[in-house]
Amino acid sequence: MWVIKLGGSLLSSGSLREWLSIIVKHGAGKLVIVPGGGIFADQVREAQQKWKFDDKAAHQMALLAMEQYAHLLQFYAPDLVLSDSIEGIEKTISLKQVPLWLPFKMMNTCQDVSANWNLTSDSLALYLAEQLNAEHVTLIKSCSSNKRNARQLSESGMVDKDFPELVKKSESAIWWLDQNNMGALENLLKTNDKPKHHLNAIIY
């Protein structure tokens, strides 16, 4: 199974619908989508600065921001199936469909992860992969990076602060694709070949 995290930045890149088309066409029964927070999470950050609520409240709002993005993704790709539980995800995959994760129900009171900005959708993709025993996690972002070290990616702000430790613990193979790698994803889903950019190779 693949856990595919679709970055919120893809919305402004102009490539989001093409990514969704590839995923729906070739990923049915093989993967689950984790939505980023994108502009919706940015609004939470701005609101927190203005209204001074704590990180726990911001974390809950950020989870809902991911769900807002999920509903937008489903608008663009109506064949996606909204799923808010492990059971729902597994059932959808068994029916040869593509589940789209709604994280709030599972993560709102979860004590296993940080309830602050140290953890965002990138780390949540790793958490979900652990719960599903997924073989692969793929982060799809609008930006490219020559950094394949999870800690360097975190220090550069390309992933969240908790990400390196979760990579260290993960049993999944973790990959990075940018917006120009659509052909690579299509090939992966069609042939199960390995991507070129493997974050697990160096984790410190």
What do we call the CATH topology? Carbamate kinase
User: What is the SS-derived class?
Assistant: alpha/beta
Number of separate strands: 6
Low-confidence segments, given as residue ranges, are 199-204
- Mean pLDDT value: 91
Count of DSSP H/I helices? 10
Overall, the morphology is globular
Roughly how many Å is the radius of gyration? 16 Å
N→C terminal distance:
26 Å
Order of strands across the biggest sheet?
2-1-5-6
Assign the CATH superfamily.
Acetylglutamate kinase-like
Percentage of residues assigned to helices: 40-55%
Q: Which CATH class?
A: Alpha Beta
Residue fraction in strands: 5-15%
- CATH architecture heading: 3-Layer(aba) Sandwich
Write up what this structure looks like.
The protein is α/β, with parallel strands linked by helices and 204 residues long. The chain has one domain: Carbamate kinase (3-Layer(aba) Sandwich). 49% of the residues lie in helices and 14% in strands. The protein has 10 helices and 6 strands; from the N terminus they run βααβααβαβααβααβα. The strands form 2 sheets. The chain has a 4-stranded parallel beta sheet with strand order 2-1-5-6, sandwiched between helices. It has a two-stranded parallel ribbon with strand order 3-4. Helix 5 links the parallel strand 3 and strand 4. It is globular and about 50 Å long. It starts with a strand and ends in a 13-residue tail after the last helix.
